[in-house]
Fold these 2 entries.
Entry 1:
Amino acid sequence: MTESETRALLQAVAEGSSSVEDAVMKLKMAPYDDIDIARLDTHRGLRQGIGEVIYGAGKTPEQIDRIAHALWKDGQRTILITRMTQEAADALTKDIPFTYYSDAHAGVVGSMIEPDCEGTVLVITGGTSDIPVAEEAAITAETLGNKVERVFDVGVAGIHRLLSNTDSIMAANVIIAIAGMEGALASVVGGLADCPVIAVPTSVGYGTAFGGVTALLSMLNSCASGVSVVNIDNGFGAGYLASMINHKGVAV
């Protein structure tokens, strides 16, 4: 939507010839920003409540830099970049505030949003090898304005480690359970928690783990109620969904 079109729309609202609801709908459906290498959905924050996120995998450092600067210029003040390499982070032009989180392979342009809801998102992993996916989930949830607690390396091979964190499990508003191998962690957590559990299978494991497929199928077949499953290694999707649930004020 051009400046003149926006002014005309606002003038129509001021004059009473357009309702506020109609104006908001038109703004939500406003055109994208075409910068040749990408078509940026600059009104996504208005439409969905969360601005566009940059998926870094497959993009060159120069492309990430251009997209991030275009979103910043358009007024987006918190920009999450997932699957970002150290090379891309080093190449980002530092005329805008930027923080790189190496464990999560993620970057944030601008600043983290202060937690704006009361609930806690608990991120649990089966093993230390699952931490990169867990950190992607945690950084995503934090970037979207959630309080996040981390409990790592509490897999079912030593289940007493998990049970020693029962208080955190019971207090959480949403839990993200992340595991590879056979993926049993999600079912155990689902059997302990009275809140939604988002299961994330990881590609960690030996041959018949099939790059996370075994954990994925195990989690999909969980007998615990209230367990949902995202794709293999999809920490971002889990963190995003957890934020949506947490901001809906799910009571525990």
Note: The chain has a mean pLDDT of 90.
Entry 2:
Amino acid sequence: MTRSMGKITLARRIVQVVMLGLFCLPPLLAGWGLAGLYAGGDGEVATPAEGVFFGSLSSSAAAGIPLLDPLAALEVLASGYGLAAVGLAGAALVVVAYGLVRGRAFCGWVCPVNLIGEGVDALRRRLGIAVPERVLDRHVKIAVAAAVVAVSALVGFPVFETVSPIGAVNKGLAFSGFAGAGTLAAIVIAELFVSRRVWCRSLCPLGGLFQVLGRAGQMNVHINHDACVHCGRCEEACLADPVILAPALSGDDVIVRAGDCMACGACVDTCPARALSFSLGRLPARAQTRREERDPVAES
């Protein structure tokens, strides 16, 4: 079955592609080629790092402002290398920005591995390959994130950064850094033949860290219970894990509260009754509202 692309998904796809291109611009503007190749002559040229923006999704700088992947920062600190105040500030800035919006909005709107995962989803449907919806609990990736930090402390270097599939795409295109290519290939194979979105849903340590931050996010999927027809299309479309929609669909909540929500908008786009939309703020759960209506007098 061919699926039409909704407005939010189209906007998200544009952002994903723009983000990939953004990291490729510095070497191109400096006269270099992609994948770390230099295509110029013998004359002196600027290095890519001299531009307004430079770096990768692990570590970058925009207009002199450092931006650091918070998991990478934790790995560096745990491994004993130490981190300058400017690095800590860069990691804190990323935490605050994604924490206020939705922690896993990074996964849905920026991460190139999710973009590839969506492509694998489409390929699997075209090939008619059936796989389980899930083989591991979505909370496993939180434990994986903790293990990554612990192992980094034991071995004395940031372990995930050496095998990160995010780096295989991001750093590979710009700098020819394909250290995580093997991990990325394994993810594609697992997505095709083992389980849907198994890496992003259950194993990615960065996703686990952002899942924890996601509980404080102010951008939430809101449900209009009167409009919902319980067709199940939102659960089918969910990129994170359909189980996170259960409290809202059952009537116990008015928003998708789980930190795992990527704010990707796939469920909003696919809803035929327009019962789902984005809203700002952590609204009280519907069950809590009902209790307050029954007992409006608060204890002093």
Note: The beta strands are 53-55, 59-62, 65-68, 219-223, 276-280.
